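Recap quiz, item 2
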Amino acid sequence: MNPQIRRLFFVLVTLFVAVIGMSTWWLWKAPDLEARRGNPTLLVKQLTIERGRIFAADGKTVFARNRKVKQKSLGRTWFLRVYPQRRLVAHPVGYSTIERSRTGLEKSLNDFLTGSNANLDTVLDNALDKLKGLTQKGNDVVTTINARAQRVAMDALGGKCGAAVALEPSTGRVLVLASQPSFDPNLVEGHFNQILRTKAACGSASPLLDRATQGRFIPGSTFKVVTAAAALDTGRFTPSSRFDDPGYCIEYGKRVSNFADQSGPEVFGNVSFTQAMEHSINAVFCNIGKKLGPTVVLDYAQRFGFYEEPPIELPSEEVAPSGLYRRNRLYLPRDPNQVDPGRLAFGQERLLATPLQMALVAAGIGNDGIVMQPTLVDRIVAPDGKVIERSNPKEWKEAIKPRTAAELTAMMRAVVESGTGTAAQISGVPVAGKTGTAETGVSGRNDTWFIAFAPADRPRVAVAVALSGQSGTGGATAAPIAKAIIEALLKRNP
Amino acid sequence: MALYVAAHLVVRVALPLADPYLLPLSGVLTGLGLTMIYRIDPDLAFRQGLWVVIGLAAFAALVLFLKDYRTFDQVKYILGLAAIFLLALPAVPGLGRTINGASLWVGVGPVVFQPGEFAKVLLVVFLAGYLRDNREMLSMGSGRYGLPSLKHFGPLLIIWGGAMLVLFQTNDLGGGLLYFSIFLAMLWVATARWAYVAVGGLLFAAGAYALYHVTPHVQDRVAIWLDCSWTVSNACPVYTEGYQLAQSIYAISGGGLFGQGLGEGVLISPEGHTYIPFLSTDFIFAAIAQELGLAGAAALVLLYVVFLYRGFRIALMADDGFSKLLAVGLTSALAIQAFIITAGVTGLIPLTGITLPYVSYGGSSIVANFLIVGLLLMVSNHVNRERS
């Protein structure tokens, strides 16, 4: 029997070696596995770090802080997240949980917040803390969000499905990034079902979707600003160019009518370019689009940042690019004949844009044609109060010439003074704006918009508001919200 | 610790010639298990401590009062029947307890125990005796086609049937696999015929296949194993059925080479539940890998290998068939059990819930495994006395 016993020994030893081999294999795969959802290893390891806090632009309003939890058996302290502002900034700030990982700035700035960034100071501080046996501390983040204006925007959007974005045109600082319906990030851990049960006035509430940066709305007439920019910047038209408006425009042998009320399509007759913008006359823009061709219009859209994810500090999967979409995917046609130039010119034709993108368009016009890189982070502060990162304004796109920007500003002022956007008038402050009422194919379910910047002569704020599932016009539904946000932001620094 | 020293002294007095490594080995394993359990749940560790005391008492009783283990040889059929009786016990209405989908427990009042653990020991003793008596017949083959006659092979078929029955009835692939592997290992050692292993393996595979088709529980286990371990695919249902295996693999991979350190591992959530269910029983190997790393896990496995080596050495040196087969059977029972569970939690084979000998929390398991080490030491003592 002895030979068998010896062999059996080797068989069993081989099996044990296989077990060690398998464990080694998992070790090898550890980097892949750590990134997987549901793996608590890294997340929990980082829970022992006193995560940095997240503040509003004033440096006082707390968006995210820590709650200490002592574990009895080991005397270990965990730092769990608390979001005192609840729904207010749930989308840009995001959440950091064990069960559902992280989103928003909590995700994209995780290295800074946990102090795992590679700045020399931080590395030294951590090494010292470790030697002293102290808790590792993360860096605080001060955002650019104006808490008061954010609340105004969230309240104004409340109950609707939509988003509002406000930027500082000269710096790209994001002052408001509001999306409704929102969710309470404190419920993500443990009460996620409550969030999923959120109801809203639109088809699907999707409270986790950041409609400001990911929500794709049909831009409708707000896109006329881009078409006009192309028309003026190429020198093909001037604000005083004359057009005849019969109430419709003929495309492919068929009539495309102007916006219709109860008495049928509006007819304006002979108008200037400025008047066409003021009253948002589809027929005129349709003809301009046909003359310029879709290639030029799309080229100008790209100059404003369409077809790219705006380079904001949010995780890439939470920012969507704007442009033409086909089968739910972004597409840039090579062959201009594939695109209906008239409908493109007034922002229909499978064109989709995020509120952030349209705010960038408004900001670009308000900043002499230069689109600044949008930023949500003002500064990152080490635990000892030292500022380790400060965001500096960077140019993102040179969209149009300053002269074109000035002409467009005058046209957009006319919209608010005497056109479709009168609801956004603010006494003593000139506002330049553009309305949008995009048909989705279902009557009474329009995507409505308002984009604006103010004061028009020296812009400090650019805003975009988008709502879905509206029966009214952009001028009636979105413009008042934009007005409220602008007022809240201008009141701050008189 | 003191108890171990006492137990060790008992052994040295009662069995002066016994193998000096086995008891300390089981002691180290138990100590490691207790430490781990304490870190997971101090109350549970206290209960485990009680079980260790009971186990050591049983061990001492066995070593001190049983003069010659070969008396078991004479009552082997009774022991075999007792084993089957114990295995069938959980099926008795009113006695059986089903925990986590497997009906392996028997409850009498507040005491719940797993008779399968003791049946394992009895089965090995029976097989050792039976195979010793019939090994010539079995290895030669007396009937036609070189097959042994039904007279000699019959009881083995009964055992196979019994194991299969237990498998179906308890819904427990791990136990079935364990008993059957022990059976095959001993049969092969006794007869040196590969055909038995092959036929036995096929029969078991057939049984397992049938079980796979009859019980969804087993289908789930296999599907999870395929999705979660071999391919690491996104099909692995991380949040539902595949949760425990996925968490176990995360824990092992997160442990790194030297582990997070005792008490430092990511095992318990801030809300106080363990990420891996059954952490102190089935998944204790994952907890060890997380906190002590690959090095710790490998060292643990190495302890089993040393145990295996010492146990087989006793078998090699023994000069009577019963002692040989008994030592081989007991040792491989322990080693195979350790393999099935460690391979299960690492995703090498489909996961089946059995304990890691000496390390996992579990009263029946601890006591039964101490009886195993006691028997092994008695065989060793006997063997060495014959030699000198």
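The first strand of chain A starts at residue 54 and ends at 55.
Chain A touches chain B through 43 residues (CB under 8 Å).
End of item.
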